[in-house]
Structure formats: C-alpha cells, structure tokens
Design a protein that fits this description.
By secondary structure, this protein is mostly helical. 67% of the residues lie in helices and 0% in strands. It has 2 domains: 20-63, no CATH class; 73-110, Arc Repressor Mutant, subunit A (Orthogonal Bundle), CATH 1.10.10. It is elongated and about 60 Å long.
C-alpha cells in the first residue's frame, strides 16, 4: 500500500528558502572561514553527509523559543556619531532607544572630531 503524500506548503517553502533563519546565517559565517569549513567537512565524513545539518538541528532544538540579544554596538555607535550635533543627546538617545549615558560614552570613545 502506498503511503499518502504529505501536504505541500509551497508558500512556506518559499519563505524558508528566501529568508534563512539565524542558525543558517551563523553557520554561513562559520563556513566562510576556511579552517572552520574544513573542520565541519571532517565532521561530515565522521558522522555522515548530514553532519552539519544535524548540528544545525541540535542548535535549533537547544535554543528553540528563546529570545536572544545580539550586540549591535558598532551600528549604534555609527548612528550616534551620524546623528549627534553636540547638543541633541536626549533626542539621539530617544530615537535610538538607548540611554543618554550611552550617547555620551560613544562620543567619548570616538575621541575628538575633525577640526
């Protein structure tokens, strides 16, 4: 007896293919490093061809449903430096959802401006 075909979800499949999740993106960064890529290839040889997929699945399973905070200091610092005019720390802080102290810390760490 033939097993019934599982329902297809083309829209979901397109979304998943179009926008990789955080785990896929992290592994893309890891695999971009030649040494790490070689190490993961060795895992594939030892565990079988699906070693990397099993690692991704394990990471997803471990952290499923958790909210994460990813440090974005560099982008925030660039935005502060771009927006700050010397007198608008409160406005910059409000627009970036950071504290005024953070605005001043970024300015201090950046050092004296040109001129």
């Amino acid at each position: 007896m033939q097993k019934p075909a599982s329902p297809t979800t083309p829209e979901l499949d397109l979304l998943v293919a179009a926008e990789p999740d955080l785990v896929d993106r992290i592994f893309d960064y890891i695999l971009a490093d030649p040494a790490m890529s070689l190490a993961l290839q060795k895992i594939d040889v030892q565990v079988g061809e699906c070693g990397v997929r099993k690692l991704k699945d394990a990471v997803r399973s471990e952290f499923a449903g958790e909210k994460v905070w990813v440090n974005k200091r560099e982008k925030v610092a660039q935005a502060v430096l771009r927006m700050f005019n010397g007198r608008n720390a409160t406005e910059v802080a409000r627009r970036l959802h950071i504290s005024r102290a953070t605005v001043y810390r970024v300015i201090k760490q950046a050092g004296p401006g040109p001129g």
